TrEMBL record:
Taxonomic lineage of the native organism: Bacteria, Bacillati, Actinomycetota, Actinomycetes, Kitasatosporales
Record keywords: ATP-binding, Nucleotide-binding
Name of this chain's protein: Long-chain acyl-CoA synthetase
Keyword presence, ATP-binding: yes
Organism of derivation: Streptomyces lucensis JCM 4490
InterPro entries reported in the protein's UniProt record: AMP-binding_CS, AMP-dep_synth/lig_dom, ANL_N_sf
Source species, domain of life: Bacteria
Gene3D superfamilies on file: N-terminal domain of ligase-like
Keyword Thylakoid: no
GO molecular function: ATP binding; long-chain fatty acid-CoA ligase activity
Pfam families linked to this entry: AMP-binding, AMP-binding_C_3
Cellular component terms (Gene Ontology): membrane
Domain AMP-dependent synthetase/ligase residue range list: 70-480
Length: 653
C-alpha cells in the first residue's frame, strides 16, 4: 500500500511493485509516498517485516565522488557552514568544499599514504572531521574514528588493531598523550594536529601533486571498497572494528533521504542540520554523509555544554536536529524548571498535557484510528504555543521542525509532547554494524513509543528467543581481524544477530524491549528486561541515570543517580538549603519524590518485574569514570563492580 505524504490519494496510475526492485519514493504526480511493510507471520505472531528499497543500488563509484559531483552539478549551492572562532558562521559552496577536499587529499598523497591505508581521526564534531573524511576517501584511504574522550589504552588498542599509519588529533594534548605509546605502534608514521594548522600544511604540501592523481585513486574505489573501521563502544569486552563499505553507506543514506523526504527535500525552506553528536559514532557520520549527498546545509557544533550549544543553535538556526533521548529530556526538564522558577509551573504542566493530547490526536488521524485534534484542542494548543512551545523551539534555534532521535527509545509521552509542540520526531533503531538506522518512524504515519518501520531495503526478523535479526545492503561486510588477514564475516545466512530483544506488531512497527545479555533472571525465575523501566525513569527531572539490578536476587532493585540541575531547582522550589550530594541522597523528602516516580513506573510491569527498593548513589555515572560508553550507554559490569556495596545493601534485611 502506498500512502502519499500530502493529504490526497496516490495516483491511480502507479505501477505495481516488483518484489526486490527499487521503489520510487514519488508517484506519477510527483508526490512522495510511503510503502507499508510486507509482513510474515508464524504461529499467529509477526516474525518478519520488510520494505523494498526506495533508491536504486549504487553499482559504481564511492563516497569520495560526492563533493566533486556536487561541485559539478551545483557549484554555488551552499553545502556546509563553517563555524568561525568568533562564533559567526561562514557558508561553504559545493565548489569551495570540493577544492578543500582535493587539496587535503593531495597532501595525504604527498606524505606517502597509500590506497587502503588506515588514517585515524580523534576530534570533536567540527568541520575538519567531515573535510578529512572525504579527503581521506579521495586519496583512497580508510578512516578510523577515535572518540576524543577515549583513554590512552583505548586509543592505543584501536590504532594498533586497525594498523593505522596516520593519526589526526584535534588538540596538542591528545597528540602528547599518545606520544609515549608510539613505541608500541610501529605502523603509525604520522601524527597531525588540527589546532596547530596541520591540515593547512597538508594542503600546502600537496600543491605539487597533480589533480589527476586524486582522480586515479578515486577511480580505484567502488561500492565494495572498505570506507571506514568504526570500533564499537564496548559496553562489555574489547571493542571490535566494524568494517563498513562505501556501498553500505550508499544503501543507508540514499534510502533514508528518500524516506525522510520532509527533512532532506523540503520545498518550504532551505533544509539545514546542525550536528552536535559525536562524529566518532556511526549515527553522526551517517547523517553528515546524507547531508552532503542531498546537498543539505550542514553545520558542526563541537560542544554539548548549554553555554556553547545554545548560541550555536541560535546563530545556525537548523530545521532539523540529530539528537538522543537524553538531550530531548534535558530540554523538556529545563523548560519545566524555568517555568516553575518563574511561578508558571502549573501553566507548563497544563501546556504539556495539551501537547501530549495533541500529538496523540495527530497520530490517531495519521494512522486512521481517529479524527485528529478537536476544535477545542486546537484552541488550547494555540493558547499555549507562545507561552511554552515557542520558547522550546526558540531554544533549538527557532526554525527546528524535525528531530532524528536514536540511541535508545524516547518513550511515548515525550514523543507525543514534542509532536504537539510542533517538532516531529523521527525515531530510529540501528547499530554500528548496520551503518546507522535499520528502522525509522515513517513520516505521516508515526506510532509513538515504537522505533518505526524497516528502513527501505531492510528486513527485520524476530528470532524464536525474541532477538532482533537484520538484513539489507547497509549491513556491514564483517569485523576487522588483522590476525585473520582483514575482514571476517559477521552475519549468519545473511542475517545479523543484534543482541537486542524486540517485538513487531501487526503493521510492522518495531518495539525494543531490552538487551539479550542484560536480561535479569530473578531468584524466582522471572525474566526482566531492565531497559523499559530505566528509560521511563530517566525522564524524571531529578534523575540522571538509572540501572536496575536483581540477577539471581529475590527481587528487582534500582541504582539511581541525581541530576544536578534538577535537584538544585527542586531544593530552591521547596526552600531547602544547599547540601552536598552525599547528604541529599539520604533526604527523606527526596526519597518520597523518587518513590512516587518508581510507583508510577511499576504500573508499566507486573508485580514480579516491579522495582521493590532503590538507593541513591553519591556520584553520577560518567564516561570519565568508566560507567558510561561514549554513546551514554551504561557499562553494567563496571557499575556492578564499583558499587557492589550499595547493591548488597539493597538486599539486606
Amino acid at each position: 500500500m502506498s500512502i502519499p505524504y500530502a493529504n490526497t490519494p496516490a495516483s491511480s496510475g502507479a505501477a505495481p511493485l516488483t518484489p526486490g526492485a527499487p521503489v520510487s519514493a514519488v508517484d506519477y504526480d510527483g508526490r512522495p509516498v510511503l510503502v507499508e511493510p510486507q509482513i510474515l507471520r508464524l504461529d499467529g505472531a509477526v516474525r518478519e517485516a520488510s520494505v523494498p528499497p526506495f533508491a536504486p543500488t549504487v553499482t559504481h563509484g564511492s563516497l569520495a565522488d560526492l563533493p566533486f559531483d556536487n561541485a559539478e552539478a551545483a557549484p554555488h549551492a551552499v553545502v556546509l557552514s563553517r563555524r568561525l572562532p568568533d562564533g559567526r558562521w561562514t557558508d561553504m559552496t559545493a565548489v569551495r568544499f570540493a577544492a578543500e577536499v582535493l587539496a587535503v587529499a593531495k597532501g595525504l598523497i604527498a606524505e606517502g599514504l597509500q590506497p587502503g591505508d588506515r588514517i585515524a581521526v580523534m576530534a570533536r564534531t567540527r568541520y575538519e572531521w567531515t573535510l578529512l573524511d572525504f579527503a581521506a576517501w579521495a586519496a583512497g584511504l580508510v578512516t578510523v574514528p577515535v572518540y576524543p574522550t577515549s583513554s590512552v589504552f583505548q586509543t592505543r588498542w584501536i590504532l594498533h588493531d586497525s594498523g593505522a599509519v596516520a593519526l589526526v588529533t584535534e588538540t596538542t594534548g591528545q597528540a602528547s598523550a599518545i606520544g609515549p605509546e608510539l613505541q608500541h605502534l610501529p605502523d603509525l608514521g604520522h601524527v597531525w594536529v588540527m589546532d596547530k594548522g596541520h591540515l593547512e600544511r597538508l594542503a600546502e604540501a600537496g600543491a605539487g601533486v597533480p589533480d589527476g592523481e586524486v582522480a586515479v585513486r578515486r577511480g580505484m574505489l567502488g561500492p565494495a571498497t572498505l570506507a571506514t573501521l568504526i570500533y564499537t563502544s564496548g559496553t562489555t569486552g574489547r571493542p571490535k572494528g566494524c568494517a563498513l563499505s562505501h556501498g553500505n553507506f550508499f544503501a543507508e543514506v540514499d534510502n533514508a533521504i528518500e524516506l525522510l523526504h520532509p527533512v532532506f527535500r523540503s520545498q518550504d525552506e532551505e533544509p539545514s542540520v546542525l550536528l552536535f553528536l559525536p562524529m566518532s559514532h556511526v549515527f553522526g557520520r551517517m547523517v553528515a554523509i546524507a547531508c552532503v549527498r542531498a546537498r543539505v546545509r550542514l553545520g558542526h557544533a563541537p560542544s554539548l555544554a548549554p553555554q556553547d550549544l545554545l548560541p550555536d543553535l541560535e546563530a545556525f538556526r537548523p530545521t532539523c536536529l540529530l539528537t538522543i533521548p537524553y538531550m530531548l529530556e534535558k530540554i523538556y526538564n529545563s523548560a519545566r524548571a524555568r517555568s516553575e522558577a518563574g511561578g508558571r509551573g502549573a501553566v507548563f504542566e497544563r501546556a504539556a498535557a495539551v501537547a501530549r493530547r495533541y500529538g496523540e490526536a495527530l497520530e490517531a488521524r495519521q494512522t486512521g484510528t481517529g479524527n485528529g485534534p478537536s476544535r477545542s484542542l486546537k484552541t488550547a494548543r494555540s493558547f499555549y504555543d507562545p507561552l511554552v512551545y515557542r520558547r522550546i523551539r526558540a531554544a533549538m534555534g527557532g526554525r527546528v521542525r524535525y528531530a532524528i532521535c536514536g540511541g535508545s527509545p524516547l518513550g511515548r509521552r515525550l514523543a507525543a509532547f514534542y509532536a504537539g509542540a510542533g517538532i516531529e520526531i523521527f525515531e530510529g533503531y540501528g547499530l554500528t554494524e548496520t551503518t546507522g538506522a535499520s528502522t525509522v518512524t515513517p513520516p505521516l504515519k508515526p506510532r509513538l513509543g515504537t522505533v518505526g518501520w524497516p528502513l527501505p531495503g531492510t528486513r527485520v526478523r524476530i528470532a524464536a528467543d525474541g532477538e532482533i535479526l537484520l538484513a539489507g545492503d547497509h549491513v556491514l561486510r564483517g569485523y576487522w581481524d588483522p590476525q585473520a588477514g582483514g575482514v571476517v564475516p559477521a552475519t549468519r545466512d545473511g542475517w545479523l544477530p543484534t543482541g537486542d530483544l524486540g517485538e513487531l506488531d501487526d503493521e510492522g512497527y518495531l518495539t525494543i524491549t531490552g538487551r539479550k545479555k542484560e536480561l535479569l533472571i530473578t531468584a524466582g525465575g522471572k525474566s526482566v528486561a531492565p531497559a523499559p523501566l530505566e528509560n521511563w525513569l530517566r525522564q524524571h527531572p531529578l534523575i540522571s541515570q538509572v540501572m536496575l539490578v536483581g540477577d539471581g536476587r529475590p527481587y528487582v532493585a534500582a541504582l539511581i543517580t541525581l541530576d544536578p540541575d534538577g535537584t538544585t531547582h527542586w531544593r530552591r522550589m521547596i526552600g531547602k538549603h544547599p547540601v552536598p550530594p552525599e547528604l541529599l541522597r539520604d533526604d527523606p523528602e527526596l526519597a518520597a519524590v523518587l518513590q512516587r516516580a518508581l510507583d508510577e513506573a511499576n504500573k508499566l510491569v507486573s508485580r514480579p518485574e516491579s522495582i521493590r527498593r532503590f538507593t541513591v548513589l553519591p556520584v553520577d555515572f560518567t564516561e570519565e569514570a568508566g560507567h558510561l560508553t561514549p554513546s551514554l550507554k551504561p557499562r553494567r559490569e563496571q557499575i556492578m563492580r564499583d558499587f557492589a556495596t550499595e547493591v548488597e545493601g539493597l538486599y539486606e534485611r
